[in-house]
Amino acid sequence: MQKLNALVVDASSEFRNKARALLSAAGFEADIAETGYQGLEYAQQTRYRLVCCSDDLPDIAGSEFCGQLRAINGYDYAAVLVMTESDNARVLKQALLAGATDIFSKHDESELGIYVQRLAQRETRQLSGRVLFIEDSRVLQTIIIDLLTDMGLDVDAYTFAEEAWEAFSGGDYDLVITDIMLEGSMSGITLVRKIRRLREDYGNVPIIATSGFDNVSRKIELFHLGVNDFVSKPIVREELRQRVFNHITSYQNFRELRAQQNSLCSLAMLDELTQLFNRHALREFAGKYLSEAYRFKRDLAMAVIDLDHFRAINEQYGFVRGDNLLAELGNWLKRHVRDVDMIARWSGEEFVLLLPGCDEQMASLLMQRMQKRLTRFNPASISITISVGVATLRHDKQDTLNSLFEMADRAMYQAKMAGRNCVRIYQAESELPIRETQE
C-alpha cells in the first residue's frame, strides 16, 4: 500500500500547524514549505498525493503555483487544494483554470477535514474480487494487471477471447475488462454478446470495453450490446482505477442486496422447522395452480395430511424430539412428492399437498402409496401414521384455495373419525367422504 504524503505551502505558521495536525489525523505525513518556490522544489524531489497551498503566497500567486506544479512530471492527478482568506471570484476562477482541484476557506476547517478524510479513504481502500482481463498487448496487459492487483483484486488475464470465454463459463467474476480488437477468431464484441446472453446472475457482470479506436458509432453499438463502460486507449491509470472501483463495488453491493432479498424471501416463504413452504407461500403460489387448472381445464387435487396421535407423541417423548420428528418428516415428504407438486406445512402437525393433473382416484392412489412408504420410515426413531383427506377442484363451482382446503380438511377429519391411518375422499353431492383405504 502506497504511503500517503502531503505538502502544505503557506507563509502562516499558525495555518501550517493546523493543516499538519488535520492531515496527520487523516493518516497523511505532511511536509511544510513557507514559499511557493520552496514548495515547487519539494515537489520536484517528492511526489505528493495532496498539496495544500495558500492563494496569497509571499513570492508567487496561488494560481501560478498551481500551473507550475501541474507541469511537474507525476502531478497530473494529484489533489491540489487552494486555501483562501476571502471569496474573490476572479482569483478563485484563475486558480481552477490553472489546475487547482478545489478551493477551501481557511476559516472552515471542517470542510477541509471532510475532504482530506475522504481522500485518505479513497487512496487506502482495498477491493476483494476477481477480474477477467482480455488484452493482446503484453505490455499493456502487464501495466493493467499491476494496477488491479495493487487494488487487491485477483486477475485472470488472457490474450484470446476464446480462452477468456472458457474461463468465464467456469468462474465467478466481479468484472470483465476486454479489448474489442483481439487476436484469434473471437472478438471482444463476440465475447460481450455471449456473456450477455447468459440468463444466470453472472451474466449481469459489469463489462468495461477498451479500444484504441475512439469511434462514436462503435461505442454506441457496444453499449447496445450491454457493456457498462468504455475506456479509450491510451488508458489513463487513475481513470481506469476509479472506474474499476465504482463498477466492482456497485456489482458486489447489488449481489449482496440480492442475497439479502433471497434470504428474506426464504424466511417469509419457508417454515423454519421443516424447511417446507409455509402457509403464506401456499397462499402466494396456489393462485398459479388454480388459474392454470381453470384455464386449461385440468384436474387439480389437494391432500390435507395430519400426523396421528402427535399430542401423545409430544407427551411421551418431549417437544424437542417431537420437533425433530416434524423436521425429518418434512424432509421425507419433500423427497416423496412429484416435482410438479407443492407441499407446505399448514400448522402444527398438518401438511397440505397440491397435486396438479390429479383427479380424486389418482390423488387417492398417490396418498395410499405414501402411507405404505411411511411404514418403513421412522422419523426421530418413532413409528408414525397419517390421516389424509383428498378433495378435487370443481370447475363448475369456481373453487378457491379456501374452499378446496375446507373440503380436503373435512375429508381428513372423516379419516380421523374412521380410525386414523387412512385416506378419505370428499364427495361434493352429500358432503360426506365415501371412500376409505385403511392400512
Task: Write a structural description.
- The protein is α/β, with parallel strands linked by helices.
- It is 47% helix and 19% strand.
- It has helices at residues 13-25, 36-45, 62-71, 89-98, 109-124, 138-150, 161-169, 188-197, 216-225, 237-269, 279-295, 310-317, 319-335, 360-374, 401-417; strands at residues 5-9, 29-33, 50-54, 79-84, 102-105, 130-134, 154-158, 175-179, 207-211, 229-232, 300-307, 342-347, 350-356, 386-392, 422-425, 435-438.
- A six-stranded mixed beta sheet has the order 12-13-11-14-15-16, sandwiched between helices. Strands 2-1-3-4-5 form a five-stranded parallel beta sheet, with helices on both faces. It has a five-stranded parallel beta sheet with strand order 7-6-8-9-10, with helices on both faces.
- Strand 1, helix 1 (13-25) and strand 2 form a beta-alpha-beta unit.
- It is elongated.
- It comes from Methylophaga muralis.
- Its EC number is 2.7.7.65.
- Residues 5-121, 130-248 form the Response regulatory domain.
Brief write-up:
This protein has 439 residues and is an alpha/beta fold.
Topology overview:
Layout: E1 5-9, H1 13-25, E2 29-33, H2 36-45, E3 50-54, H3 62-71, E4 79-84, H4 89-98, E5 102-105, H5 109-124, E6 130-134, H6 138-150, E7 154-158, H7 161-169, E8 175-179, H8 188-197, E9 207-211, H9 216-225, E10 229-232, H10 237-269, H11 279-295, E11 300-307, H12 310-317, H13 319-335, E12 342-347, E13 350-356, H14 360-374, E14 386-392, H15 401-417, E15 422-425, E16 435-438
Helix pairs in contact: 2-3, 3-4, 7-8, 12-13
